[in-house]
Amino acid sequence: MPRRIRARAGCVPRSASSSTKYPRLLAFGALTARNGAAHSDPCHHTAQLVPYRGIAKGDPMTRPAPAPVHPDEPFPSSPPPTATSALAVQIAALRYDAIGEDARTVAAQCVLDGIGVAIAATAEPAVRILRKTVLSEVADGPATLLGTDLRTTTRDAALVNGTATHALDYDDVSGPMSGHPTVPVLPAVLALGEELATDGKALVTAMVAGIECEVRVGAALGNAHYLRGFHTTATAGTLGAAAAAANMLGLSAEQTCTALGIAATQAAGLKSMFGTMCKPLHAGKAAASGILAAKLAAAGFTAAEDAIAGERGLLATQSDGADLDALTVPFGRPWHVADVLFKFHAACYLTHASIEAALALRAQGLEPAEIESVEVLVTPAHLGVCAIPSPRTGLEGKFSLRFATALALATGRADESRFTDASVADPALVALRDRVRVVTVDDVGRYSGQVTVRSRDGRTWQARDDVGSPRWTRSPAEQLHALEAKFDALVTPMLGEARTAQLLAVLGDLDSLSSVAELTALTAPAPRSHP
């Protein structure tokens, strides 16, 4: 049974003293697990107030040697008394060498996949409107708008890039989180990484910190949160972005605890926005809010000590029967990032099993002209997510089990090029879509789908699929070829073959990346040579 949530009093800095270890950050007294100091609660350290002026590009911070995090050993050995501070300790202490190899590999794949879908969405209406609005206010700054040579502030870049990364709904998924893990975190660490001149290893470390945090928060919120109408990518994702930014900034455990509180009070996003431009905006807002939370915490802002699990906190107000154990499980037990599910069809992930089943029927020889009727069998939860019966736009088509299944049966493909306003209005596809009936049952897996077709000659065709597990078994490298093919298909039309190949090469060796700016610069089209 999930543990009962208990409340604790708020946490604020109490006194000031001098220090030279963190000249640009608000450094709280003992750094708990980061410097090995024994202290029961990182949110109750004495504060030391130092003006926060940001960090100059090219000026790396001095970070004290961390206590190691080992998957085989609980961390920390004496957990702080609140769930939020316990999570903060792990986020603050996480370093690259402590992350499991599979987790590091998949985190790098998340960067690859996320940048690909963001570049492909550069011309999407939601992205164009948001970009124009942002640049009308600030048209220069330390951070790149992906897919362009334009720059703006760190937070505005995270806002626009986060929206772009989610605009096509082609980004990855986490089952325990009930959301999309990369879209709130990657835009935050790319923008902040440019500001700080962060290297590739620090980028991957921050990605893992953010994803591990948001998946735990999403799992603790549970399915009740999603069923209430909250978009977990937006809510838990705001905390994930804050965790990633805090790790990248080198915040102490107590500062990270505060950042999580600031993020929690900003967390928002409604499922009623699915099928509109506001759904991808959720991801952009989460990324930008996470950066704000971390920077405010660094500057001395205060927040409730147990904002996640305390009385009237995130879990208490936005869920029923929250699972505190899911929130406090040590990093590495498991590494949730290793189980991220990548999309290879450009639609809501809950349509993918049915798409795969439909493709399997085509492979068996089923011809679209032979189809009399189609039945799609899924869990009832699908009805509140991807059951738009008669989509009017390509975006709505991505959230229509009827259309996505018909599309796969008719064309044998469900990539980005197929989800257009023209395709959802195509008379042949509409006629087939109208022969698709969605049926729900309780005894099927969350990511399962069964498609049964009755052909005009009276035969019955049936296939079932489950997309709830990663595509690899022994090593995440097994899915790299498919991810690179997806990236190439998305990015080459935007940047050209040479630039895409150059970007892929850098993304394939993030360990050697000396500065995030080198990576983001390659996301813009190559300058044209003039004779």
From TrEMBL:
Residues 59-81 are annotated as: Disordered. It holds the Pfam family MmgE_PrpD_N. InterPro entries: MmgE/PrpD_sf (IPR036148), MmgE/PrpD_sf_1 (IPR042183), MmgE/PrpD_sf_2 (IPR042188), MmgE_PrpD (IPR005656), MmgE_PrpD_C (IPR045337), MmgE_PrpD_N (IPR045336). It comes from the Bacteria. Coiled coil: none annotated. Residues 86-325 form the MmgE/PrpD N-terminal domain. Residues 63-81 have a biased composition (Pro residues). Residues 345-502 form the MmgE/PrpD C-terminal domain. Belongs to the PrpD family. PANTHER family: 2-METHYLCITRATE DEHYDRATASE, 2-METHYLCITRATE DEHYDRATASE-RELATED. This is MmgE/PrpD family protein. It comes from Pseudonocardia acidicola.
